[in-house]
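Hello, quick one for you while I still have it in my head. A protein chain has come my way and I'm curious about its shape. I'm sending you its amino acid sequence along with the backbone structure tokens. I'd be grateful if you could look everything over and explain what you see. Here's the protein in full, and shout if anything looks odd to you:
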Amino acid sequence: MLNTSKLTEMLRDAISNYASFAEEKSPAEWLQDYLGEKLPDKSVDAIHAISSEILSTLDLVEAKKAALDEAIEIGESAESWFAKETMKESGSSGEKARMAAEFMNGITSAERTYDNAIEGEIIDVDGEAWTDDEWNDYRLKDSLKEVAVEAGKAGMREIASEAFLKASEEGIAAVFEDSDFVQRSLEKGAVTGLKVAVSAGLAVAEDSGVILSSTLEVIATTAHRTVESLATFGDVIRGRKTMTEAIIEVKNTAVSTFSAMWERHRSGVLHEIKEAVTSVFGMKGAVISGLVTGLVTPAKEESKLMHVLKETGKAVWGFLTKERHITIFSKLKKKLFS
């Protein structure tokens, strides 16, 4: 279990420290200095490596989000964009289908970390059905779209969870004096610095054993989704977005995040995908996102925030509890296990 009070303290310290130096240092400079101070046992080279990994991951997920936003502007769906982006990458159709199946396994595993989990089956990615003969372009593209649908649902699952709601309440209960700075940053679109600060807090928490061991990719990706989520709900509170628009934005951010994770893992170890997706989209990610959302919300907006979160959760829950049925992979299971 997460030590939420200690994690809240570390996140608050990181964001407040960043706020105090935001006018003097770039996010990259601040990150290097902050981690050097908080992780004194690490060498200069180690601190540099940690900082570089966090920043490069944030660059990638933000680039993917920007690319998806552009595609949506011209009328393309998030799911079609994900499939098209993935189809363009190097690698055989069979290899991509196998990766897609392991990403699905990550979604299923993430779902199982919540209470009242919606059960899904784990697909055997070590079976013999991952040849190019089994996966023509049409079949692969259709499967990738369906995986993107499930990725979006995984993002929505977070905001519908009791873990997210409870963590938001705990974040609100903590004393935080820099909420105005955070809101000004969001107003200016200066979200990268906040993502760096949240990443730093999570890196320190991970090093201290406050959260379970995670890769820096998972830490930075979680920070990205957290800040995007709090920015979205802030817009709902202030009347700039409807609840429906916020839900769609959460879904689309999840899809673009999946695209970034796909790019990160396409030349790596297949079985690391499931663990990474579980960490980012499971209950641990929901708790972190909820804590930060509650922590940085100004006192005058706290009751509005909780109302919006509760109503949003109700709105998406009915959709999420529909039976998961991915046609291509369901047929594949029959072939593998019959």
Observations:
- Residues 4-337 form one domain.
- The longest helix spans residues 44-73.
- The chain has 15 helices and no strands.
